[in-house]
Sequence to fold (427 residues):
Amino acid sequence: MKFHIQNFGCRATQADGAALAAALEARGFQAARGCAGADLVILNTCTVTSGADQDVRQSVRRLRRENPTAKIVLTGCYAQRAPQEAAALPGVAWVVGNTHKMQIPELLLGEPASCDSRIFVGDIFAEQSLALAPALEASEDRTRPNLKIQDGCNNRCSFCIIPSVRGRSRSAPPDQVIRQVRELAGRYREIVLSGVNLGRWGREAGIRMRLAGLLQRLLEETPVERLRLSSVEPMDFSDGLLELMASTPRIAKHVHAPLQSGSDAVLRRMRRWYRARHYAERIRRARALMPEAAIGADVLVGFPGETEADFEQTRALIENLPFTYLHVFTYSARPGTPAAEMPDQVPTAERKRRNRILRELAAAKNLAFRQSMVGRRLSAVTIEDGRLALSTNYLKIELEQPCPPNLLVEVEIQRVTQSGLAGQVIL
Fold:
């Protein structure tokens, strides 16, 4: 049987999809190049916003038109959150939550169609382990594998559904992470470490180190040329972690710390556990230690009760901090979260207006950052077909002369392009 997996959402979901693909191939299933040639299509879903849910539903409808004979399996966070709703979508054969995701090969081989139920969803809070891909199958990206080393979240942000579909925070054992990175380092120049709440790696009983300690061991015990951290909560960017990142070219100069709001009043209602001044101090510390680093944030606009004054505090904070990019999201209510029941919901048109203002501000900051790179040399890994490279500080570079993918190179930046940079590899 030929299968295709379509991943939605965050890097943790992508890593889960890679793990699932490896498990299917190990049991004799064959990967198809796309949905059209597949007998089985697995949609590995996201549910962080109502838009994410809608993307999944649209994908199901499109699949039925383009490949009406394919069996469709919905798994991931949407399947975990709303299994009955997912099972009611026309054409969906099975719904498999995060609790059963890595059992999909066994479910398929056991002919689950003969079971009374098409839904396989359990108690996510009973989960104690991570689904990790075999190291050499860690990513669909052939040049930058994505290794998930943490899952779940113990925070209870009032707008977020993720803890209820991912469960409690749990970490991959350090020796296992080191073993996998060591194997990956033989094939790849850059490895991305990811998690649902990556900065909480190692906080469970039995692991006597934090994320900075793990990175130090990886630098000492593996030949990895570059590690990149995905999103880390702002207060988990300790001085020790930032100083380690600044001390070596083997860790990408890239800090992504979710902000969500620059208003303390909104942060309290969001149940975020820092205030704007704490956040600003961490970002300024990162910039002082790494003057050319990429610094990015997630921002949520239109949260219930967000006044114009609250929004202005967010805008002003962003303007005054050295961000190089933003991911700006418009608030949408998630059923089952406290925020969905809060009064003073912001009108949709106003949410969109605020989103547009921050996106324009982010674009201006990103352009200024890219312009400041002209004439400099940046370390980068070549990606895709070798016509592009991704710099240590998270900038896409068009190469004047293509070279093989999966190389770590020095690039002299010559000019700014519409969305990135262009430069010449220095031999």
Remarks:
- The radius of gyration is 22 Å.
